[in-house]
UniProtKB/TrEMBL annotation:
Gene3D superfamilies: Dihydrodipicolinate Reductase, domain 2, NAD(P)-binding Rossmann-like Domain. The gene is dapB. InterPro entries: DapB_C, DapB_N, DapB_N_CS, DHDPR_bac, NAD(P)-bd_dom_sf. It holds the Pfam family DapB_N. Residues 3-119 form the Dihydrodipicolinate reductase N-terminal domain. Homotetramer. Its EC number is 1.17.1.8. One of its GO terms (molecular function) is 4-hydroxy-tetrahydrodipicolinate reductase. It comes from the Bacteria. Pathway: Amino-acid biosynthesis; L-lysine biosynthesis via DAP pathway; (S)-tetrahydrodipicolinate from L-aspartate: step 4/4. This is 4-hydroxy-tetrahydrodipicolinate reductase. Catalyzes the conversion of 4-hydroxy-tetrahydrodipicolinate (HTPA) to tetrahydrodipicolinate. NAD(+) binds at residues 9-14, 39, 92-94, 116-119. The lineage of its organism: Bacteria, Pseudomonadati, Pseudomonadota, Gammaproteobacteria, Cellvibrionales.
Length: 262
């Protein structure tokens, strides 16, 4: 029996990619697609118009798992709706504030949730490599994260860039918030030892490029992931949904799905 999937934000770039992918997936079936209140069913619609709804509760009434790549503004409502309906939740929305993240964590007490900054298999392998490389590097190695995305992305640094920084911080056994340098401008002085720097690029239709740099005197190691299409993220989200369908309540991520934990 296939896992019934509701897609949040079916008219978005990721929503449309997920609709196409799920239709060819034997493990999953499309149960519902949500639209924003100001959106109409697209013409021509990629699936039956009857699957579209403006109401999250209606969408969840026919679903086992919600896949959600929308905006932080919807997170609290979706968290409460999934907990209320007993529907599991794949969360790919980034840029959450503390209260929005708290809503996700609270819902995980009721249903299984897989939350990740990036659902690409390649990126999650990169995160593991970054942590290992940081542990192996000498203390004086400078750590930098560079990310590039399309002109429409609204949060910076990207959730994936922050996840890379967190992997570096774990490898160094330090707190990212205390050591992150999010921007540099003007007379900044010398680089602070032990800091983790971030650089952000926005332009065109870049799907997502991320580089972790390990820079020391005489050598430089770079670990880079480049996404050419959103299919990598959609495939990972579908994989997470199938995996999540058999899990008890709790907060998981793609490292769990891919069994990359120690």
């Amino acid at each position: 029996m296939s896992v019934r999937i509701a897609i949040a934000g079916g008219n978005g770039r990721m929503g449309r990619t997920l609709i196409d992918l799920i239709q060819g997936n034997e493990e999953l079936s499309l149960a519902a697609v949500t639209l924003a209140q100001n959106e109409n069913v697209p013409e021509p619609a990629p699936v039956s118009a009857e699957l579209y709804t403006h109401e999250i509760d209606v969408a969840l009434s026919e679903a086992d798992v919600l896949i959600d790549f929308t905006t932080p503004a919807t997170i609290v409502v979706h968290a409460q709706a999934c907990a209320r309906a007993g529907v599991k939740w794949v969360v790919g929305t980034t840029g959450l504030d503390a209260s929005e993240q708290a809503a996700v964590t609270a819902a995980a007490g009721e249903v299984a949730i897989c939350q990740a900054a990036n659902f690409s298999t390649g990126v999650n392998l990169m995160l593991r490599l970054v942590e290992l490389a940081t542990r192996a590097s000498e203390g004086e190695t400078d750590l930098e994260v560079i990310e590039a995305h399309h002109r429409h992305k609204v949060d910076a640094p990207s959730g994936t860039a922050l996840a890379i920084g967190k992997a570096m911080a774990i490898g160094r056994d330090i707190d990212l918030d205390e050591h992150a340098v999010m921007s540099r401008e003007g007379i900044t002085g010398a680089r602070v030892d032990g800091s983790i720097g971030f650089s952000t690029i926005r332009g065109g239709d870049i799907v997502g490029d991320h580089t972790a740099m390990f820079v020391s005197d005489g050598e430089r190691l770079e670990i880079t992931h480049r996404a050419g299409t959103r299919l990598a993220f959609a495939r990972g989200a579908c994989r997470a949904a199938a995996w999540l369908s058999e899990k008890p309540a709790g907060l998981y991520d793609m490292q769990d799905v891919l069994q990359l934990r120690d």
